[in-house]
Structure formats: structure tokens, C-alpha cells
Specification:
Shape: elongated
Strand order of the largest sheet: 1-2-3-4-5-6-7-8
Order of helices and strands: HEHEEHEEEEE
Number of helices: 3
CATH architecture: Beta Barrel
CATH topology: Porin
Helix content: 10-25%
Largest sheet: 8 strands, antiparallel, barrel
Radius of gyration: 23 Å
Length: 189
Amino acid sequence: MKKLFSLLLLLSLASQAQENTVLANKKNEFRVDVLSAIVYTKASLSYERFFGKDWSTGFNVNFSNSTKLNDDFDNGYRNNVPKFEFNPYLRYALSKSKSRYYFAEVFGSYNGGDYKEIVRITDMALPDYYTTKKSKYTDFGLGGSLGYKMYFHNSIALEFIVGFGKNLIDRNKSPDVISRVGLNLGYRF
């Protein structure tokens, strides 16, 4: 019985080591955020490059043209609507397994969209009046995220990520808080 148990333990360790070696040889990964596409009607694509034992870097690109957000913006329920984001990031794996692990990341966010404000128009010939003025905004923010990633068949990735940050430059027009929340499906090669 001890021999059988030892053999099963050795086989499971060998298969996990082989799985980690196969994943370690694959250095690139592309992902699509399924949650953002369904909930926010936002296209979100990511690329990640793995280097070293626990480190990786990459970027995420988002484009949004949500009817709900645009309607809220046009009807005055919100004063800004994000249209695009470019998020470079650096990640560190918190777990030792390469096939299932927790990670922490720091990210930057170059983002932009539409901004609307009510302005007072002063004209000498007419009485003062108020009107709505639309403009564009761009900003840069910093933030952090935590997530969990798992692999199936040594290539298919499933990732859950939650993170928040703050815009730093044009805080009068841009959103105060930037978020990175997603459920990503990807392929590692």
C-alpha cells in the first residue's frame, strides 16, 4: 500500500512538474475580456509576456461605445463617458504553481472620452444664459490589481481580475476612479 501511495504521489508530482515546464516554455498570451463585452459592451484585449520565474508584463486596450453610458451622458445623468483606455502593467505571481496562481499587479492607465459641463455665456447685447458645452478629455492614472489565473490543457487561460486606480492629471474632467475588473479568456503560446 505504501508503494502504491508513493508511486501515485511521484506520478502526480511529475505530471505537475511537466505541466509547469510546458507553461514555462510558452512566453506569450492573448486574452479577451468576456465580462466587459457582455456587461459594458466594451471591447477589451490584452497581451502578456512572461519572463523570469514569477514576473510578467503586458498591456490591455479597451474601446467603449455603450448605448447605456452614452444615453446617461446625453440625458445629464453623468458628466463624463470613457471611450478608450490603454493600460500597461507589471505582474508578480503570488503562488508557486504555474498552472493556477494568484497575482498582484501595478498598472498605468492612459484614458480618454467625452466630457460635458454647463457654462455661462455672457454677451453684452443679450442677457446671460447657460448652455451645455461638450469637450474631450485625456488623462493618466495609476492603480493596483489582484487576480487569479488558471490554465487548461497547458494553453487555455481563465483569469479573474479586480483593481482600482486614480486619474492624476485632468481630474476636473476625467473620472476620479479607474477600474480594472474582468473575466478574461486567453491563449498562451
